[in-house]
Amino acid sequence: MIKRNKKIENKKLKELISYLKTLKSVVVCYSGGVDSTFLLKSAVISLGRENVFAVIEDSILFPDWDKKFALKFLKKEKIKYKLIKNTQILNDSLFKSNPTDRCYYCKKHLFSEVRNFINEGVKGSRSGSGCVGNNPKVLQNGNKWNYILTATNYSDKKDIRPGLKAEKEENIISPLSLLKFTKEDIREASKELKIEGYWRASSACLASRIPFGEEIDEKKLKRVLMAEKFLRKLNINLVRVRLYNGSLSKIEVGSGEENKIIKNKERIINYFRRIEVEEIHLDLLGYKPAGMRFTKSIVER
Fold this sequence. Notes:
The chain is of the alpha/beta class. It contains eleven helices and seven strands.
């Protein structure tokens, strides 16, 4: 565990710590990923546990392994948290139709749930105005929690991220983006803070495995989850199972991990057929972020 008064050498990390101190108290949208784990830990170092609260999205879109890591980290660090159920997302016809700005609708739902939770009052929070001046990013409620933070980083700006529009509309603060933390900066600073799992591969919402324009439903999401959980058990660090038409899969893995798929070919075929994935393709180009943007389908039917 890192003590708040431990000397910090990383220049960008020092800037982040100083910035977070100005926020006084925060609610961090926590996914269990490398970025949000780093932001949450930095907030605790800056403000103390009593001024930091974590919220975790509890929905079928959130991979099991990230949730497991998140809960373990929160328990170890003794950070207050709440599971926020995003149960209505699959009832949203706009999200379910899977447009190119799908992430926008998901984030709007999540931020709305987080604000509702805060406005109802966080159990055990002390009283206070929770408001500083006329800054719209400050929560206008009677609780002590001043700001909602996300771990969007500077590298994310290079990608197409409709969720950023929702962050702007909802006046969410993204300190890592503001201070120009790249993914590599985050891993380097996380290493200095001795944060477990700083080397882990990037993670993403399970809806990102389904091509734009194909309807998202619970059955497809569960199929993706089961397929990726199985592949992760084969010691594949970075993997995505893109699901086309509900039963055709394209497996993307990190550089150098293709042989793990070939080596376990029969096991993969047998398991995928059990979960009703009939066709299995290995993408020789490997993993690419938000790969569904680049191809609608891998075959013409």
